[in-house]
Design brief:
Chain lengths: 343, 613
């Protein structure tokens, strides 16, 4: 009997082990491509499915956590509230690896406040925004990330300035901000892996065209528009910690970002000159590209030095949820002396 | 009001907020307490940092009553703005200590009060050279004056000063001096004409003076809370701050500096509730503390917690609503709202502590119940209970371990072939759960607030939806009998009182007053919702049951009408109090006595009739 060889990763798991339920989103939806890239990133990265916690809010995007890693726990919260739920779970069990999926309505409208505060606290999680500029489940209303002048399917024109998720994230102090495109796995997979290796909140604003409500002429979130206007900052490779093979690149053409677990993200400059460790440069490149109608993608900003919430709170190595009465209650002596103080 | 020879003295001090009045009031309270006399202090303060009027009620009784009383036997008037109005608070023939500079009170104010004008401002200026310090010490002079009038010995004052300023020797000396200034002024310049006098008793030995928010915080720590997410709001902030203070002291590893609790000040109450659910889902004991406006914001998450079955402890230290309402006044206004908070069919266990001891105990119990029942648990305190000092017996050290509820770990899953998160395998409506991070292929499930079946899969099936909702109702039935049971007092009267929360203390006193006037009343104190079966028994056994609510709409009475049904509902009479003041016994007596007048008259006539038979 011939053995069937199934390719496995460092944990001995096959790519199928990272799959989830069949998608119920529209055929051709950018979100489904992102799901595939997530599956690849988790597989390549050797993420333990039991340690993964899939978090989401409400909307088309937030359904996506059902479509990968069926063996991981998932929390599909209420609209725009994934950040708070993730914050609570992250301090309760710091051993979990949090991957949150949100959308532009979830993040930039109803959940804008929570999103900003998640970044301020630098909760250790990967936060993917599947950004299509439109409300899909309620049939095509503009979202707050729709660009000024963008045309709705039925013809109305967006009169309001966009909320740029990546720009906002840098502004409020996020420690890892990138933008990508659902159709660009070569860029998105290494970015996802870098995000998983980063300790702190890693925001990935992924433009993900809505084939049903926002893929027409005049939309700035359509496949065609992104193809025509994408400004790719860097080509990138994710180099895991254990990799020893060195690839030669022409001197000066690449830089590396070292991440918490010892892995590195190697960046080869393509588009504009940009130092992703420079916050002002990040804000500048985001603002310039927006004003010129470009979709800038790549690693926009990273600061691996910022302490994440669990470190800042000085939480113990053992997850809080595993502590028992002995570690949590005052001893009878302490109790008696406290009451004496209170007398 | 008090029995002959019994002590019942009520002092009211009217001062300006932010002028050090609180330390003065506390020193006086602790000094009388140190004399062995039971005290019941009530601080009525404005929603303001500095400049608005504030009143302090201090009642001392030999009966040990913990409720306050409305009118003052001794009024200390230090706020010019409220001087005239304050005079109306004085009992006829009472004692008035006032700032001399206000001038004499209008004649006819009170009936013949004993007047003690004291030049507080002038005394302060002469004895306290530092102007900044003077601002905070002027009030303490009144303590010296009152001590002289009532005969409070220096030793008792010293004990109180040490308690208040033990870590601040400079403040201790300055306050001591200011008290002496007041005492000396009275001795040298005024003659005591009244007959008020405090004689030492022996009724406070072993007792403590504690705030409900303080004891609730200790309950949270002893109950194993490891995540506190909160947003500052009066009157609940001090509860969170007490938790943080206790954590700083008892949850920090001295060697590593590691902290065995996460205390997160959230961006709003909505986020605070979300953090509690996230932490509860991941297996931690999590809580938030808030007040009415916060509960309004949390409605969304409470519904999710109910439907997705996630443990969490939600403390509501109630204040006066609706909307911003009166932020620094007390009310039991959130009962009906909290009980069924969120859209759709929801119902939540609500614990109703009636004392600072129960604030401590119920907090611990709330964490067990939340994990046992896998649902949000409310603890409804109020401003009166939470922010005033109450005399209490010492808090007991817990004798039982935590009950973490039905959680399946890897080892148990190894023995199973199937796990379904929402399957009622034990018939009690409470399913088993797994925590994220459990290393077993059966462990994972998809938590959602949308329609789901027993295996946590999305469904819009009508049958499944109904089945899940019916099980949730069954789960609450399981919870009903695990909640703190009512406490019944008496048993042979025709009339009953049913009360809950901080109303308890006024009820106890009102029952004594009515008994002395010939009206015997039994008492059931409700300690949780949904109501236990004893409540129906109690109502069945009484012709009329007065339901005491500190709200306008008789919220508990409404709940009881529904829960007990029409056969018993007609026996309920509503007694309501909703002016933002703590409930006093007179508020109850004034409503119940007239209503019972015919019955009382009949009872008085009865022995004659019986004798004639």
């Amino acid at each position: 009997m011939a053995a069937v060889t199934v390719k496995v990763n460092q944990l001995g798991l096959s790519r199928d082990d990272y799959k989830g339920l069949a998608t119920t989103l529209c055929a051709g939806c950018g979100h489904n491509s992102i799901t595939n890239h997530i599956v690849k990133a988790l597989y390549d990265h050797g993420v333990d499915p039991y340690r993964l916690a899939k978090m989401s809010g409400i909307g088309c995007s937030s359904k996506a956590t059902a479509y990968f890693v069926e063996r991981a726990h998932a929390f599909n919260a209420v609209h725009g509230r994934m950040p708070a739920v993730t914050t609570g779970a992250a301090v309760a069990d710091r051993d979990l690896l949090f991957l949150g999926i949100s959308g532009d309505g979830d993040t930039a409208s109803i959940g804008l406040g929570q999103f900003c505060h998640l970044l301020r606290r630098n909760v250790d999680c990967t936060y993917v925004v599947e950004n299509n500029g439109v409300y899909g489940l309620t049939k095509g209303q503009f979202s707050a990330t729709a660009d000024l002048g963008s045309v709705q399917k039925k013809g109305s024109v967006n009169q309001l300035e966009t909320i740029d998720i990546a720009g906002l994230a840098v502004q409020v102090g996020a420690s890892f901000v990138a933008r990508s495109f659902s159709g660009d796995g070569a860029q998105l997979v290494p970015l996802l892996r870098a995000a998983l290796s980063h300790r702190g909140t890693a925001v990935l604003d992924v433009i993900s065209p809505c084939v049903t409500f926002n893929d027409h002429e005049g939309s700035t979130k359509s496949y065609q528009y992104v193809k025509d206007h994408e400004l790719i900052l860097q080509e990138m490779d994710f180099i895991p910690q254990q990799t020893e093979v060195e690839v030669d690149y022409a001197e000066g053409s690449s830089t590396e970002v070292e991440l918490h677990d010892g892995s590195r993200l190697r960046l080869r400059k393509l588009g504009r000159d940009h130092d992703p460790k420079n916050r002002l440069s990040a804000l500048q490149v985001i603002d310039e590209s927006r004003r010129q109608g470009e979709v800038v993608t790549g690693l926009l900003y990273v600061n691996p030095e910022m302490p994440d919430l669990c470190s800042a709170e000085n939480l113990p190595r053992i997850p809080l949820r595993d502590l028992g009465a002995e570690q949590l209650r005052l001893t009878p002596d302490e109790f008696a002396s406290l009451l004496k103080d209170w007398a | 009001m008090a029995k002959h020879g019994a002590l019942d003295l009520n002092l009211v001090a009217s001062t300006v907020n932010g002028s050090g009045s609180q330390s003065a009031n506390l020193v006086l309270t602790r000094a009388i307490f140190a004399m062995g006399i039971p005290v019941a202090p009530k601080n009525l303060f404005p929603s303001n940092i500095e400049g608005l009027p504030t009143w302090f009620y201090l009642r001392a009784t030999s009966a040990g009553y913990r409720a306050g009383r409305r009118r003052a036997d001794l009024l200390v008037a230090l706020d010019r703005a409220t001087f005239a109005a304050d005079l109306a608070r004085l009992e006829p023939g009472g004692v008035l200590v006032f700032e001399e500079a206000f001038g004499p009170p209008p004649s006819g104010a009170g009936s013949g009060p004993h007047l003690y004008p004291v030049p507080f401002a002038r005394l302060a200026k002469a004895s306290i050279p530092d102007a900044d310090l003077r601002k905070y010490l002027t009030n303490i002079i009144y303590v010296g004056v009152v001590a002289e009038i009532l005969g409070i010995p220096d030793a008792a004052l010293e004990e109180a000063l040490l308690h208040q300023f033990k870590s601040k020797p400079k403040a201790l000396a300055a306050n001591r001096e200011a008290i002496t200034t007041g005492r000396e002024y009275f001795r040298s310049n005024l003659t005591k004409t009244d007959s008020l006098q405090l004689a030492a008793l022996d009724q406070t030995e072993g007792q403590l003076l504690l705030e409900g928010n303080q004891t609730a915080a200790l309950g949270a720590i002893m109950g194993g809370c490891t995540v506190l997410a909160w947003y500052p709001i009066t009157p609940s902030s001090s509860l969170a701050e007490h938790v943080i203070g206790l954590a700083d002291r008892y949850r920090v590893d001295h060697e590593t500096g590691e902290r065995r609790i996460a205390t997160i000040q959230a961006e709003d109450e909505l986020a605070a509730a979300g953090m509690v659910l996230g932490a509860g889902w991941a297996g931690a004991r999590a809580m938030t503390t808030t007040s009415g406006p916060g509960i309004s914001l949390m409605a969304e998450f409470i519904g999710l917690g109910y439907y997705a079955e996630i443990p969490g402890v939600f403390v509501d230290v109630q204040r006066v609503g609706p909307s911003t309402g009166l932020p620094t006044r007390t009310m039991q206004g959130d009962i009906l709202f909290a009980y069924t908070l969120s859209h759709g069919d929801t119902r939540h266990p609500v614990l109703l502590p009636g004392s600072v001891l129960e604030c401590y105990q119920f907090m611990q119990q709330a964490f067990d119940l939340a994990e046992q029942l896998q649902t949000p648990i409310f603890v409804l305190s109020d401003l009166d209970l939470g922010m005033n000092l109450w005399m209490t017996e010492p808090l007991p050290y817990p004798e039982y371990d935590f009950d973490r509820g039905k959680v399946l770990h890897k080892e148990q899953l190894d023995q199973m072939t199937r796990f379904e998160r929402y399957r009622d395998v034990d018939g009690d409506g409470v399913p088993w759960r797994t925590l994220p991070g459990t290393e077993h292929p059966l462990a994972a499930y998809f938590t959602r607030g949308s329609g789901h079946d027993e295996a946590a899969r999305y469904t819009e099936s009508d049958e499944t939806y109904t089945r899940v909702m019916d099980r949730l109702a069954r789960k609450l039935e399981t919870g009903r009998e695990r909640l703190p049971a009512p406490i019944v007092q008496g048993g042979s009267a025709d009339v009953g009182i049913l009360a809950y929360g901080s109303s308890h203390h006024a009820v106890v006193e009102a029952i004594d007053i009515l008994a002395a006037r010939g009206l015997a009343i039994d008492y059931l104190r409700l300690r949780a919702l949904p109501v236990a079966s004893q409540v129906a028994d109690f109502v069945s056994a009484h012709e009329r049951v007065y339901v005491v609510d500190q709200n306008r709409d008789g919220q508990m009475q409404q709940i009881l009408q529904i829960e007990l049904g029409p056969d018993l509902a007609h026996r309920l009479r509503s007694v309501r109090h909703y002016d933002g003041m703590p409930l006093f016994a007179a508020d109850l007596v004034d409503q119940i006595e007239p209503a019972e007048e015919p019955a009382v008259a009949e009872a008085r006539a009865l022995p004659l009739a019986a004798g004639a038979r």
